[in-house]
């Protein structure tokens, strides 16, 4: 199915109905990736509470915050559903750290992209292999790069459709949904962390700063993607 056909199929549907439509259209071929941030917790809640046949997975990079493990475990306790974990290739991590040290990503964009590639992109490819649709928690206003995306895309790199069901939600809408449904969320969000990734590469943002200013803050704003959501 093309992106246009999928867009037409979900047009006018609520978020639960649209996710069910996609899951029914591609049985056992739809997956959702969570990093346990605000947006992903919203979608996990919808999938789990409605028993939607969508596999939920996460990337355990080896550099996550303790608070991320906390909300991961709380999510398992509350919903009683499985979240599949994908880890980086051990030999690749060993080779990179042995040759360049544990913090090479601070030294250049190339080194940072290498680290992201090993810890995130390669495990993601394994998680997506054989599937037809990748559900994400992307919102349009999260970064400059994402403002030019659509809520349904063709991911050439991974050869599947991507669907962003809360693409048009504001952050206030996300927070309100979490409050209204008593959804567990990462406590770092209350400490100035709107976007949370690996601990060495994430800091709190100051008032008035961009949503993703705390991610790879030592790099130019236009370079702030790790490669997970590059569709070409």
Question: Any overview of this molecule?
Answer:
With about 230 residues, the chain is of the alpha/beta class. The protein has helices at about 5-10, 15-25, 40-50, 65-80, 90-100, 110-130, 170-180; strands at about 30-35, 55-60, 85, 135, 150-155, 160-165. A six-stranded mixed sheet has the order 3-2-1-4-6-5. Strand 2 (about 55-60), helix 4 (about 65-80) and strand 3 (about 85) form a beta-alpha-beta unit. The model has no long low-confidence stretch (mean pLDDT about 90).
How is the topology of this model organized?
Elements: H1 3-10, H2 15-25, E1 30-33, H3 38-49, E2 55-59, H4 66-79, E3 84-86, H5 90-100, H6 109-128, E4 133-135, E5 152-155, E6 160-163, H7 171-181
Parallel strand pairs: 1-2, 1-4, 2-3, 4-6
Antiparallel strand pairs: 5-6
